[in-house]
Amino acid sequence: LNPHDNSLVNSHLVHVIAQMMYERTVEHRLEYDAITSIPNGGNVYAEGLQSVIAQRDGRQLPLIRLHKGTDYPERILECCAASPGSRVLIVDDVLRYGASAVRTLRILADAHYPVAAAFFVADFEWAGNRCLTTEHSCSVLSIITSSLMRALYP
User: Which of 66, 90, 140, 146 lies 20 to 30 Å (CA to CA) from residue 35?
Assistant: First the structure.
């Protein structure tokens, strides 16, 4: 599955995943004022979530754009409508080791954006999850985890 493919099936899948993300954030009573994604895998899911929130709540949350810098993995923060102090939800496709997520946390902190949580479509439950939750006190949510996959498909 390539999230950058704009086919009809993929667009529908991204929308379904964004709806699931929205429902999980409501279930966990997350409060956030803006959304960002880790380039490039999380972009379509962040945009999808932004759209679902607008449809369901009528809220137009700003999307903070992070771009790969010329010196990857450094990121460039694009100015947006979110003012410093806005609580941000980080969205990405996969959490493995957490390096990109940690860099994103640091960039947001440097720009004075506190992170409400990090949301991943899939969490491999490797070092990244422990690093974010333990070392950086960042809540991690996901649609699917490796332990759930093992339980469903032994």
Answer: 146
Burial of 110 (0-12, 13-18, 19+ CB in 10 A): exposed
CA 127 to chain centre: 17
For 45-89, give the DSSP string: HHHHHHHHHHHHH-----EE-EEE-TTTT-EEEPP-SPPTT--EE
Per-residue pLDDT of the chain (154 residues; tens, 9 = 90+): 455 555 444 888 999 999 999 999 999 999 999 999 988 789 899 999 999 999 999 999 999 888 776 554 455 666 567 888 899 999 999 999 999 999 899 988 988 899 999 999 999 988 999 999 999 999 999 999 988 888 888 7
Rounded Cα distance, 21 and 109, in Å: 23
Hey, what are 51's tokens? 């759209």
CB atoms within 10 A of CB 133: 14
- Other C-beta atoms lying within 10 Å of the C-beta of residue 31: 10
